[in-house]
Design brief:
8 helices, 6-stranded mixed β-sheet, alpha/beta, Methyltransferase, Cobalt-precorrin-4 Transmethylase, Domain 2, Cobalt-precorrin-4 Transmethylase, domain 1, elongated
Length: about 270
């Protein structure tokens, strides 16, 4: 008997941003292999009967290799289990879903991809700006600060003045990224924002400009760097904002307990 593998998008962190389909699959999963950056609130929704394994990495330290992850998924599916490969954000954006899909196809096991809210959209919503404000940006470019080919941002020369750049996994390379953007033609007064742990109770937002970016404090992972006029910092003023206060965070968690698709599992776990 063969099971099925689902590559599931966990969204940016807020459990209420899970899709109904993602939540349903997670409740039926016998095995969940999750990335390091999936939020604790999301992990708290997983059924007690499921085998839950952290297969992510932190600061480049891998707990398990990609071939081992592939083999665990395939082996569990061949035992007739429902397997959820739970990825932060959307599984098809800056994860290793391409490699996993290839391995699953070669193994001949059934699989499905369930999209999630990618971090860029959650972060922009939290910071309340449009990625494609028509007055400032005619396109959005998603980039990662960690590329397999080692290419830098200096290769990005396609109309930077009318572009919003979203940098996934910037780490603390603010000085290097600022220099690469300068080489691509962006000025020191271009606004940018660092958004850490978007949509969660620990969210922090720090607004600045490219010229001042190297002096910004290190942000807790997962974080995003968004650069462009659409970000909209007036006159390059720095403003440190913790826009999601602890009080609001508690309110969100309280609302999550009342969510029709979360109430049963969250209510059950809170009573144990």
């Amino acid at each position: 008997m063969s099971g099925k593998i689902y590559l599931v998008g966990a969204g940016p962190g807020d459990p209420e941003l899970l899709t109904r389909k993602a939540w349903r699959v997670l409740q039926s999963a016998g095995v969940v292999l999750h990335d390091e950056l999936v939020s604790e609130e999301i992990l708290g929704l997983l059924p007690k009967k499921a085998l839950v394994l952290n297969v992510g990495k932190r600061c480049g330290a891998k707990s398990i290799s990609q071939p081992e992850i592939n083999q665990r998924m395939i082996s569990a599916a061949r035992q007739g289990l429902v397997v959820a490969r739970l990825k932060s954000g959307d599984p098809l954006l800056f994860g290793r879903a391409g490699e996993e899909i290839e391995a699953l196809r070669e193994a001949g096991v059934e699989f499905e991809v369930i999209p999630g809210v990618t971090a860029a959209l959650g972060a922009a919503a939290s910071a309340r700006f449009s990625l494609t404000d028509r007055r400032h940006a005619s396109r959005v470019v998603f980039l990662t600060a960690h590329r397999a080919d080692g290419a830098g941002l200096s290769a990005e020369r396609n109309d930077p003045a009318h572009t919003t750049y979203v940098i996934y996994m910037p780490g603390h390379r603010y000085a290097g990224l600022a220099a690469e953007f300068a080489a691509a033609g962006l000025g020191a007064d271009v606004p940018c924002v660092i958004i850490s742990r978007a949509t969660t109770r620990d969210e922090m937002i720090y607004r600045t400009t490219l010229g001042k970016l190297p002096q910004c404090p290190a942000a807790a992972a997962p974080s995003l760097l968004v650069v462009g006029e659409a970000v909209g910092v007036a006159n390059g003023d720095e403003v440190r904002e913790g826009e999601l206060s602890s009080a609001v965070g508690k309110e969100i968690l309280s609302l999550a307990l009342q969510h029709p698709f979360h109430k049963e599992i969250l209510g059950g776990s809170s009573g144990e």
